[in-house]
């Protein structure tokens, strides 16, 4: 007699879950994520939010502009990296983002 094993649709929920919004499902690097968007923000973004968005846009542009040699260097460093990044692209983004944040925090010579 064959064993019947039902398909597990959702393994677990994490965080706050509301009943008034649609649930979304996403899979990234073999991990299933579920969530709900509750009361999305509809106002104008603050100056800090705009600055962070611009920083992310600049980081994405920097990652896209990397040469093949730079990508190879990142790939070699990623193989030795024991951190939380599961993909090379995430590792490159994290490194480029850290560079931009460090540039913003260093004071200018004229100040």
What does the model show?
The protein is mostly helical and 111 residues long. It is 44% helix and 11% strand. The mean pLDDT is 82. It has a two-stranded antiparallel sheet. A hairpin with a 2-residue loop joins strand 1 and strand 2 (31-36). The chain is built from 3 helices and 2 strands, in the order ββααα. The protein is flat.
Task: Provide a concise account of the structure shown.
By secondary structure, this protein is mainly α. Helices cover 44% and strands 11% of the residues. It contains three helices and two strands, in the order ββααα.
Relevant terms:
flat; 44% helix; mainly alpha; 2 strands; two-stranded antiparallel ribbon; 111 residues; single chain; 3 helices
Average of the residue pLDDT scores: 82
| Rg, alpha carbons | 20 Å
Q: Alpha-carbon distance between the termini?
A: 79 Å
Structural shape: flat
**Segments where pLDDT lies below 50 for 5+ residues?**
none
- Helix proportion: 40-55%
- Annotation, overall tally of beta strands: 2
Major β-sheet strand ordering: 1-2
SSE order, as H and E? EEHHH
Q: Please indicate the percent range of residues in DSSP E strands (runs of 2 or more).
A: 5-15%
Number of helices, counting only DSSP H or I runs of 4 residues or more: 3
Largest sheet: 2 strands, antiparallel
- Helix/sheet category: mainly alpha
Task: Please render the helix and strand layout as text.
Blueprint (H helix, E strand, L loop, with lengths): L22 E6 L2 E6 L10 H18 L3 H13 L7 H18 L6
Antiparallel strand pairs: 1-2
